Input
Amino acid sequence: MNEAQAPVDGALYAARQKIYPRDIKGRFQRLRVYAVFALLGLYYVLPWIRWGERQAVLFDLPARKFHIFGLTLWPQDFYFLTWLLIIAALALFFFTALAGRLFCGYACPQTVWTETFVWIERWVEGSRTQQMKLAKAPLSGEKILRKGTKYFLWFAFALWTGFTFVGYFTPINELAGKVVTFSTGPWETFWVLFYGGATYVNAGFMREQVCKYMCPYARFQSAMFDQDTLIITYDEKRGEPRGARKKGSDPRAAGLGDCVDCTVCVQVCPTGIDIRKGLQYECIACAACIDACDEVMEKVGYPKGLIRYDTQSGLEGRAKHVLRPRTIIYGSLIALLIAGFAYSITHRNVVAVDVIRDRNALFRELPGGLIENVYSVKILNKDAASHEFSITADGLPGLQVDYGTDAVEVGPGDVQSVAVRLRVPRGELKGGSDILFTIRTQDERALEATGKARFLAPTN
Output
């Protein structure tokens, strides 16, 4: 057998071994708990908050209205979403350049929901050791009861997650009534089950596999790191050589570093890596290993910080530069974009007009030498209050405007279509001309919008 035909030692894809992260307390884990409660609290509570006669946060797709408390956005405001996505992307670059995968460890939806599923698992099956023992135990009544309870709670929580997701698009009180009476529509049923099923599979079973193999961020994060990026790192100079020792003994006399090789840092890691091997793309910067190592160092009487947030420059004894051109540029751009976004959304024109000329007739010749064109003027009121509008038109001498009333009332968040007739003396016309329509409010708030259309007339 030649070299090309030699068998490969090891499989290309190793079978997944389930990770049972050990529970640990500490300052960073408290921050993660606060983040989970804050983010999931917002997610599950927001749809139930009322704003006047409607849901405070509701993305009404059939009506093409997106309500966010007192703000109503329309498809014409889609650029605001683009603006927000740009801010989010720059924020991700900023925090990654500043402190690595900070988003992954504290705010990523995969991390947040996985943490919740892990809490349920611990509550039902016990500690890490008890879970591993239960997994290896033969089938029994207790095992069926515990596993069944865990899966039932996971399933119920996932369904509630899917229900809440759909509640952002269908009024949640209405949706709850449909669920109780089993009368949800096909799309509502599909999205409740789909989103709930995705939560169940991703947070309950796949967990770290999503971070390691499905998330692209793990692959390109290193491109945003530099020598001054804060990362979770093991101080090899201080910790090596590692090994067990008696409490109170001098490790230097025994030729050892501060690492007691307890492997607690590995046991608490949700992705199952050993941080002592250096920075790895699987690390989600949850800082569980920092809290675990600090606890061990405190017990053996050594200084904390064997595993800590540090920069490559700091580890090599050079000065740290957390504020540097990259972070300053990112931070400045984010501040400018947020300021511009806030100004634009608070000063945006809340009325709009769309003018469509009647396609059934190019023009009409009326008695008295008048040429008439008919238009459909659609007035969009994006404000939270009702307004009365007048319609005027300019562009030709002697132009007459007729829309059958003195004012058009348009309710909050409504669109009103008005038939407008424009008449011009034939002697003032030579072919077609552009007409500028203007709508203005007739109440105390001065609002207006303009739209253009073409006035057609005989050429002779």
Observations:
- The first helix runs from residue 27 to 45.
- The chain has two domains: 16-348, 351-455.
- The longest strand covers residues 370-381.
- The mean pLDDT is 90.
